[in-house]
Design a protein that fits this description.
- The protein is α/β, with parallel strands linked by helices and about 375 residues long.
- The chain folds into two domains: about 180 residues, Rossmann fold (3-Layer(aba) Sandwich); about 180 residues, Rossmann fold (3-Layer(aba) Sandwich).
- It is about 25% helix and about 30% strand.
- Helix 2 links the parallel strand 3 and strand 4.
- Keywords: Cytoplasm, Methyltransferase, rRNA processing, S-adenosyl-L-methionine, Transferase.
- It is found in: Cytoplasm.
Length: about 375
């Protein structure tokens, strides 16, 4: 595994979740470019630096012993990556203060280093939350690989921070420099909402929620086929997003004990608010977590899942396969995993490798709903 070498540190970094012989790095040229720009400034050790969307901690780990570093992002896997990489490089965990994306920041900050996220709504919300958090003379720098750096990112920086200058591209990476200027307190357009007819729900969606503007077509295909009228069973909505699957299921099974888990803090925040709106004070468990990794073995009767097919910019079925493995471990014998997936992904064959029985519940030309029995 190549090491991450910068003027600040030489680090051994891993991605999360770990996988053997991972061909992907936990850093890229945009991280290198950003740190190379920062180093000649010879910033003092009491400089307060905010790092946003530092995927696996490459930036925060590099700066941890040089400045006062706060890292903030919406990925629990990102936090686990930061913590793993601090330990891996013998750096104290307390060297970096982590703030979940759904929590307020505590400025003022002298430098803000931003890895531009895939979801520009998240970037917009983060820039809105920077209002009043910048110290005099602060510098805001966004970085990304050119192929993942849309013009709209610069437009958002200009709208909420100030004039923007772009660097030349180096190793296919680019930096955007925003000069803060006085602006009125912005009004956030988030969370957004949309309504469902069946079941009749009004759903709140914070900035980084998948399909924030409307129900995704996979979930729409899944909803009419959810199991109903089940008794006091233990159920998890794995990768819950805004919680719609769990809520629709819970409405049809009033005695079920439901856990909603996602690796996005904003998804869990949305799910909690939507559950309260639809089901009042009915108890449920909400977790920002690495799927069901911490779930006790043989502790669930049913798992519902609309698995993701990407992690940040990386597309693949690694996360889905891992979720299937986690579900199998957490289910009791005879327990069931219900999923929806694109037909072409071949989940039926994958599930057969883990479960003793796999049945097709329903299908349309694009999606298939499967039930896997442990």
């Amino acid at each position: 595994m190549p090491q991450f070498q910068t003027p600040y540190a030489q680090l051994d970094l891993i991605r999360q979740p770990e996988q053997q012989n991972d061909p992907l790095q936990a850093f890229d040229a945009a991280d290198e470019y950003l740190l190379a720009h920062l180093h000649p400034q010879a910033l003092a050790s009491d400089t307060r630096v905010l790092v946003l969307n530092d995927n696996f901690g490459a930036l925060a780990c590099s700066l941890a012993t040089h400045m006062q570093v706060t890292s903030s992002g919406d990925s629990h896997l990102g936090l686990l990556g930061l913590q793993a990489n601090l330990r891996r490089n013998q750096l104290p965990l307390e060297a970096v203060n982590f703030v979940q994306a759904d929590q307020p920041l505590q400025g003022p900050f002298d430098r803000v280093l931003i890895r531009v996220p895939k979801t520009l709504a998240l970037l917009e919300e983060q820039l809105i939350r920077l209002h009043g958090q910048l110290a005099p003379g602060a510098e805001v720098i966004a970085a990304g690989m050119v192929k993942h750096l849309p013009r709209a990112a610069g437009d958002l920086l200009e709208r909420y921070i100030g004039p923007v200058n772009a660097s030349l591209a180096v190793k296919k990476a680019r930096l955007l420099f925003a000069t803060p200027e006085p602006k009125a307190q912005p009004i956030s357009p988030y969370p957004s909402q949309y309504a469902l007819d069946k079941p009749a729900l009004q759903l709140v969606n914070h900035a980084n929620v998948f399909c924030r503007e409307g129900l995704d077509i996979g979930t729409r295909a899944f909803l009419p086929h959810l199991p109903k009228h089940l008794g006091k069973i233990r159920v998890a909505d794995l990768g819950c997003g805004n919680g719609v699957l769990a809520i629709a299921f819970a409405l049809g099974s009033p005695q079920a004990e439901v856990t909603l888990v996602d690796e996005s803090y904003m998804a869990v925040q949305s799910a909690r608010e939507n559950w309260a709106s639809a089901l009042g004070d009915r108890p449920a468990t909400f977790l920002a977590a690495d799927g069901l990794a911490q779930q006790e073995a043989d502790s669930l009767d049913l798992v519902l899942c609309n698995p993701p097919f990407h992690q940040q910019q990386v597309v693949g079925d690694f996360l889905a396969w891992r979720m299937f493995q986690q579900a199998r471990a957490a289910l009791v014998k005879g327990g069931e995993l219900w999923i929806v997936g694109n037909r072409h992904l071949g989940y039926h064959a994958k599930l057969k490798r883990l479960f003793r029985g796999v049945e097709q519940v329903a299908a349309n030309p694009k999606f298939v709903i499967l039930k896997a029995i442990k």
